[in-house]
Amino acid sequence: MVSVLPRDKPVPYPRPLKFLQGFTDRVLGMQQMAALKVGLLGAYLGRGLMLVLAAWVIANPFLKILGAAYLIKLAFEHLSQPDQPGEEEVLEAHRTAASAFWLVVLNVELADLAFSLDNVVAAVALSNELWVVMLGVALGIITMRFAAGIFTWMIRREPILETAAYIVVFNIGVELLIAEFYHVHFEAWQKFVISAATLILCVVYAHLSFLHILGPVFRWLGQGMGNMNELIDWALYPVVAVLKILFRKGMALYHRLAPAHFHHEENVDDELDTCAEEEEEERLVVLQ
After folding, report:
1. Per-domain boundaries in the chain
2. pTM value surpassing 0.70
3. In sequence order, what are the residues at sequence separation of 6 or more whose Cβ sits closer than 8 angstroms to the Cβ of residue 288?
């Protein structure tokens, strides 16, 4: 997920948190590395909370269903075949680039929680000693952190692995649903074989040109996933709209309560950001 973030740009903090920029640039690094480190911290906090609430997680199987549904939607969103973006879409993507980092971080945390649902149940079943389970989870997250760095490097070498990763996410979501509804549980080695086979087959497809005759089939599947994802977005639209309204109300309340000198600083920042956006729009128009 973090491979879409730039490796040479700082974390885009909202104005109220700009004072953190210097410190976090030194500690976290640029956006791609920062997302990995923030994801690592979030994984510790999230899985620790899941372990503390393990009994509640086990007693509420609908959480697994929600987690599986989120993973499948995440896969649909990235495996769908969007239309070629026009000028307006390019400019809009530039304007929302600052929010892309935090959206990636949020997706990483939610995906990690969805992945951990099944692991938490299995870990608690294997041991009654909480510290043993916590130690195992901690070591697993550290391993995952280094594996994520290696996988990011591999994606730069083999771009098809980014698509393969989301196919693996889709596989995991389907496995969770099958286990919950049909009580067919996959062993750890079976899950590993499925994931490894998915990655290998995608790389083979990318390098063997005669397999590209399957391209229209994959594009058709991608379009179907895009249609499903659009239906899900429409179904969730009321919830998203309510959250946006609450966010705007909260920001309006914040601006009313913030000190006057801070508003002056924000106005200066607004002018600078507007000038930068106008220059970038002019550059994009010239390039097109």
Report:
1. 2-257
2. no
3. 87
Q: What is the pLDDT of residue 66?
A: 83
Mean pLDDT of all residues in 150-169: 87
User: For every residue of the chain, which 3-state class applies, written as one string?
Assistant: CHHHCCCCCCCCCCHHHHHHHHHHHHHHCCHHHHHHHHHHHHHHHHHHHHHHCHHHHHHCCHHHHHHHHHHHHHHHHHHCCCCCCCHHHHHHHHHCHHHHHHHHHHHHHHHHHHHHHHHHHHHHHHCCCHHHHHHHHHHHHHHHHHHHHHHHHHHHHCCHHHHHHHHHHHHHHHHHHHHHHHCCCCCHHHHHHHHHHHHHHHHHHHHCHHHHHHHHHHHHHHHHHHHHHHHHHHHHHHHHHHHHHHHHHHHHHHHHHCCHHHHHHHHHHHHHHHHHHHHHHHHHHHHC
Residue in the structure block whose two tokens are 């309006």: 252
pLDDT above 70: residue 119: no
Question: pLDDT tens digits for 217-228?
Answer: 999 999 998 898
Q: What are the phi and psi torsion angles at 9 (to 5°)?
A: -125, 140
Confidence of residue 160 (pLDDT cuts 50, 70, 90): very high
**Cα–Cα distance for residue pair 211/208, rounded to 1 Å:** 6
Phi-psi region of 82 (alpha: psi -120 to 50; beta: other; left: phi over 0): beta
Residue-wise pLDDT for 62-117, tens only, equals: 877 888 888 888 889 888 865 444 444 444 444 455 567 777 777 777 777 776 66
